[in-house]
Specification:
The protein is mainly α. It is built from 6 helices and 2 strands, in the order ααβαααβα. Helix content is 47%, strand content 2%. Bound molecules: iron/sulfur cluster (SF4). It comes from Hyalangium rubrum.
């Protein structure tokens, strides 16, 4: 007879949970590769690109990226200044740096320092892989969504509970 790793059938991991866990592992690999591709580059780390309302630009996340942020870091309240809710109070540092989305790892403003050319091919390959990972767990989600949209929706769901 085959041995089981759990006693109660109710506690057996569901197929969807296994798929989500796998997606998060793959996401970490993608993030590591993005960091490697950008290792020769740096920036002044001013936090200005995290001022989302001011820049009118925000990271767009596939489902596993949002899942990682929300599950590990919860839902901070929206900020009055419209900046990313995961920015620290002083508006300088990302409080979720190790888990920051792909877009935050690969976006640099004109003050980027490093080689003359950014690794566009590597970013493109990794983005396609990220899309495939997301599609496996959320096939109906055909595109990434802005960070603030994920955040507002999750807050609203939480308030209704
Ligand atoms: S997740 Fe971090 S790096 Fe990305 S916008 Fe928010 S504070 Fe900035």
């Amino acid at each position: 007879m085959q041995e089981r790793d759990w006693d109660d059938e109710d506690e057996a991991p569901q197929a969807s949970e296994i798929a989500e866990a796998r997606a998060l592992r793959e996401l970490r690999v993608i993030y590591q590769r993005a960091d490697t591709a950008y290792a020769p580059f740096s920036c002044p780390a001013s936090g200005e690109c995290c001022q989302l309302a001011r820049t009118q630009r925000q990271p767009w996340l596939w489902h596993p990226e949002w899942q990682l942020l929300a599950s590990r870091h919860g839902l901070p309240p929206p900020r009055d200044d419209g900046a990313c809710p995961y920015l620290d109070g002083a508006g300088k540092r990302c409080t979720v740096y190790a888990d920051r989305p792909f877009g935050c790892r690969t976006f640099f403003c004109e003050r980027i320092r490093g080689p003359a050319r950014q690794p566009a091919e590597a970013v493109d390959t990794l983005l396609r892989r990220l899309e495939a990972v997301s599609q496996r767990v959320r096939p109906h989600l055909k595109s990434p969504r802005p960070l603030l949209e994920w955040h507002a929706e999750a807050l609203s769901l939480e308030e209704r509970r």
